[in-house]
Amino acid sequence: MPVINRIADFATDMTAWRRHLHTIPELGFDCPKTAAFIKERLVEMGVDEIHEGIAQTGIVAIINGTGAGRTVGLRADFDALPIEEETGVEYASTHAGKMHACGHDGHTAMLLGAAKYMVETRNFAGRVALIFQPAEEDGGGAQVMCAEGMMDRFDIAEAYGIHNLPGAEEGMFFTTAGPIMAAVDTVTIYINGRGGHGAMPHEAADPVVAACGVVQAIQTIVSRNTKSGAEKVISVTQIHTGSASNIIPDTAMINATVRTFDVETRALIRKRLEEIVQGQAASYGVTATMDYEEGYPSTVNTPEQTAYAAGVARSVVGADKVDENFPKVAGSEDFAYMLEERPGAYLFLGAGPGAGLHHPKFNFNDEIAPVGASFFVQLVEQMQPAAS
């Protein structure tokens, strides 16, 4: 079954919803205008239940089908990014320094489109839980919604999500069983030495040279301490120190990001970082401390649900438009927390040519919204057919 005709009929609605959301981007958990707009649409559609205030501005809406069955969770994130928009579109952000540069406005429009159709038809058994989530970009809104008991409260059995993918073929789905996105951790290293005159380095304990040694040694973790073939990235992205050419400073700071796909590699890298930082500091006669902040875990698709979702995608866009062996992505996604609590799958939907995610010229492709909405609907209807 291709894109559902009725959903194609109100593609104009989805475009209007998305473009309105694009004008009012909000950050983190503080998304009152976005949440109010979503609620207004859900009330108009006639969903059965609307539960507000989850993770501050998150919403879970329930649509009852016909007959008994499980509750399927469908998730859309709705927060924006602290970026000054440069698209020049007539519906550009009206909130200075904020924009929907990742397509969360489009994700929300797709789920609203699916909701509108499912309320009209109720061609499924059980229930659908529409999960509208804040703070994906920063704050882990999915983690907070789960910590507040969302999965048990609404008896959600499985969870599914979609993210648009600019640069990939328009209307094509991409996914894979197992890890699909990385865990992301942030490392900050503080080196404390003893400053002095640049002409007399023997009287100082130079944190600059020590910082260089630490950075060089860190590069050996991936090449010499982790299993060959295991995907992992350690990138040193900042070194801050010094104030003048003739002054050896007292301190230096190093910042890095760590991306991994399994808990063993994640733990090993943290252990080796701690050992290298202390060992290098001692060898240069300085001291060091390390702050290791664990961020989102790896997004891990369960095999059965991934295979099912890929099959649904094929029924919507055709077998040649679904890649079920998509390479792992080193970016991160807090939908990982939902997949830690329930089986499910995360998929990418190709958006065609255009600026990349998190770019000031990014703009969601409204043409793919009916595809995503049809996928959500078919996911539910094929999983739990309505009682005859």
Q: How do the helices and strands line up, and which of them pair or pack?
A:
Blueprint: H1 5-9, H2 11-23, H3 32-45, E1 49-54, E2 58-64, E3 71-77, H4 104-121, E4 127-133, H5 141-147, H6 150-153, E5 156-166, E6 173-174, E7 178-181, E8 183-192, E9 196-197, H7 207-225, E10 232-241, E11 247-248, E12 251-260, H8 263-283, E13 287-294, E14 299-301, H9 303-317, E15 322-323, H10 335-341, E16 344-352, H11 369-383
Helix pairs in contact: 2-4, 3-4, 4-11, 7-8, 9-11
Describe the 3D structure:
This protein is α/β, with parallel strands linked by helices. It has two domains: 262 residues, Aminopeptidase (3-Layer(aba) Sandwich); 112 residues, Alpha-Beta Plaits (2-Layer Sandwich), CATH 3.30.70. 36% of the residues lie in helices and 26% in strands. The protein contains eleven helices and 16 strands. The strands form four sheets. An eight-stranded mixed sheet has the order 1-2-4-3-5-16-6-15, with helices on both faces. Strands 10-12-8-13 form a four-stranded antiparallel sheet, with helices on one face. The longest helix has 21 residues. The protein is elongated, with a radius of gyration of 24 Å. The model has no long low-confidence stretch (mean pLDDT 97).
Quick synopsis:
The chain is α/β, with parallel strands linked by helices. The protein contains 11 helices and 16 strands.
Q: Percent of residues in beta strands?
A: 25-35%
User: Which structural class matches the secondary elements?
Assistant: alpha/beta
**Helix content percent band:** 25-40%
Q: Which fold name is given in CATH as the topology of the largest domain? A: Aminopeptidase
